[in-house]
C-alpha cells in the first residue's frame, strides 16, 4: 500500500497509509479540518491536495504561501508522485513510497536520500529545464551582440551623414587614410600654380 511519511521540524514523524481507490482525496494543511493536518506554522491552512487519480497519487498546491516542492523542484500544476519522491511543504518533509519507509534522521542523510530517489519523470523535467535555460542564455547572447552591432552601424551612419552635409562627400575617406577627391584636386591645383609661378620670368 502507498504510504506518506511526515517529518516535522521538531523531529517527530508519522506515517499515513494511503488507500488505492479513485474516490480518495485528502487536503494537507495546518487547519484541523484537513484530512492530513500538519501543525507547523510554515504550512498554510489548506496547503495542498493529495488524491488518487488515473492509477496513481497526485499532489497539487492549493495556493499556499510557501508552495510545494518535489525533489527540489516546484511543479507548475498537479504532479504525479513516484516511489521515493521527497515532498517539501514549508519546513515539513514528506516521503511518498509504495512500501513502509522511515525518513532520514540527519540533514545529510535526507539530502543524499533525495538525490538517490529522484524519479525518472523528475529527472526528465530537470533536463528539459536545464536545456531551456541554456537555450535562453544563448539567445540572449546573440541578441546582445546584434544590439551592439546595430548601435555601431547607426553611429557610423550618423557620422557619415554629418560628414556629407558638411563636406559634400559621401564617405569620410580620411578615416581610412585615403585622400578625398576634392582634397586631391586642390593639391593638384596648388601644385600647378606653384610650378607656374616658378616658371614665370622675373622682371
TrEMBL record:
FHA domain mapped to chain residues: 26-75
Keywords: Membrane, Transmembrane, Transmembrane helix
Pfam families: FHA
Superkingdom field: Bacteria
InterPro entries to which the protein is assigned, alphabetical: Cell_Proc_Reg/RNA_Proc (IPR050923), FHA_dom (IPR000253), SMAD_FHA_dom_sf (IPR008984)
Annotated transmembrane regions: 140-161
Protein name in the entry: FHA domain-containing protein
Species, as recorded: Akkermansia biwaensis
Amino acid at each position: 500500500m502507498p504510504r506518506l511519511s511526515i517529518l516535522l521540524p521538531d523531529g517527530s514523524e508519522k506515517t499515513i497509509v494511503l488507500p488505492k481507490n479513485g474516490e480518495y482525496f485528502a487536503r494537507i494543511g495546518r487547519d484541523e479540518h484537513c484530512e492530513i493536518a500538519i501543525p507547523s506554522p510554515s504550512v498554510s491552512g489548506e496547503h495542498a491536495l493529495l488524491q488518487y487519480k488515473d492509477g496513481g497519487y497526485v499532489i497539487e498546491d492549493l495556493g499556499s504561501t510557501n508552495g510545494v516542492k518535489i525533489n527540489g523542484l516546484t511543479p507548475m500544476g498537479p504532479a504525479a508522485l513516484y516511489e521515493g519522491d521527497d515532498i517539501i511543504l514549508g519546513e515539513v518533509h514528506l516521503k511518498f513510497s509504495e512500501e513502509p519507509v522511515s525518513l532520514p534522521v540527519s540533514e545529510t542523510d535526507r539530502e543524499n536520500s533525495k538525490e538517490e530517489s529522484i524519479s525518472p519523470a523528475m529527472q526528465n523535467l530537470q533536463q528539459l529545464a536545464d536545456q531551456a535555460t541554456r537555450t535562453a542564455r544563448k539567445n540572449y547572447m546573440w541578441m546582445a551582440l546584434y544590439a551592439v552591432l546595430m548601435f555601431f552601424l547607426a553611429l557610423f551612419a550618423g557620422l557619415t551623414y554629418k560628414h556629407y552635409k558638411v563636406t559634400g562627400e559621401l564617405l569620410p575617406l580620411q578615416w581610412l587614410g585615403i585622400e578625398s577627391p576634392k582634397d586631391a584636386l586642390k593639391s593638384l591645383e596648388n601644385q600647378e600654380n606653384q610650378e607656374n609661378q616658378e616658371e614665370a620670368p622675373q622682371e
